[in-house]
């Protein structure tokens, strides 16, 4: 079982604006990973499910879009759970940039 990280990212873009920015920017996540990685994503209603694969690990995540926030859940597998605090800090700092 992984170590889930949950956080809310406020926005003022409306659902359609957030979806457009997430679709156009979600692959930029790999720019923050040493050596790069791969991102797959799909939408189910207002929730984008995505996986980030890098360095032999796959991280399953979701982002549910609301009118005023995005609720993100990142499930860190195995030993990556040891770094949950640091990963959460990076997500909190970098995720809002995807919405700009």
Per-chain topology:
Layout (H helix, E strand, L loop, with lengths): L2 E8 L3 H12 L12 E7 L2 E8 L2 E9 L3 E8 L7 H15 L2
Antiparallel strand pairs: 1-5, 2-3, 3-4, 4-5
In short:
The chain is α+β, with helices and mostly antiparallel strands.
Q: Overall mean pLDDT score?
A: 89
Alpha-beta classification: alpha+beta
Main sheet properties: 5 strands, antiparallel
Strand and helix order: EHEEEEH
The rounded Rg comes to: 13 Å
Residue share in β-strands: 35-45%
Order of strands side by side in the largest beta sheet?
A: 1-5-4-3-2
Describe this protein's structure.
This protein has 100 residues and is of the alpha+beta class. It has two helices and five strands. It has helices at 14-25, 84-98; strands at 3-10, 38-44, 47-54, 57-65, 69-76. Strands 1-5-4-3-2 form a five-stranded antiparallel beta sheet. A hairpin with a 2-residue loop joins strand 2 and strand 3 (47-54). The radius of gyration is 13 Å and the shape is globular. The termini are far apart. 13% of the residues are buried. The mean pLDDT is 89.
Descriptive labels:
about 100 residues; five-stranded antiparallel beta sheet; 2 helices; 5 strands
């Amino acid at each position: 079982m992984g170590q889930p990280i949950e956080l809310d990212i406020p926005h003022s873009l409306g659902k359609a604006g957030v979806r457009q920015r997430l679709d156009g920017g979600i692959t930029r996540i790999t720019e923050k990973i040493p050596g790069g990685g791969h991102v797959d994503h799909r939408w189910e209603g207002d929730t984008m499910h995505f996986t980030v694969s890098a360095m032999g690990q796959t991280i399953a995540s979701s982002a549910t879009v609301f009118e005023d926030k995005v609720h993100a859940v990142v499930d860190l597998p195995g030993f990556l759970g040891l770094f949950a605090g640091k990963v959460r800090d990076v997500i909190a700092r970098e995720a809002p940039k995807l919405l700009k």
